[in-house]
Write a structure and sequence with these properties.
The chain is mostly helical and 70 residues long. It has one domain. It has a two-stranded antiparallel sheet. The longest helix has 11 residues.
């Protein structure tokens, strides 16, 4: 996975769950990829975050708003 991170310039924490495991049931994941955001305490901000490739900047706005809530 480390090679893929560098190749695709992926940042943040990348999780890989094989098949439809418990994590997919817990977060009601019905499609892949799924982008989720957690705050500094590990609490769920959203389990349906905008894609990092979204050109509107919605993810950046969400992250900045989340980080401002210290």
């Amino acid at each position: 996975m480390a090679g893929l991170r560098e190749k695709e310039e992926l940042s943040g924490i990348q999780l890989f769950a094989s098949g439809w495991s418990d994590i997919t049931k817990f977060y009601n994941i019905t499609g892949i990829p799924r982008f989720m955001v957690f705050d500094q305490s590990g609490k769920i901000v959203t389990i349906d975050a905008p894609r990092p490739s979204d050109k509107t900047g919605a993810l950046k706005t969400l992250l900045e708003k989340t980080m401002a809530k210290k």
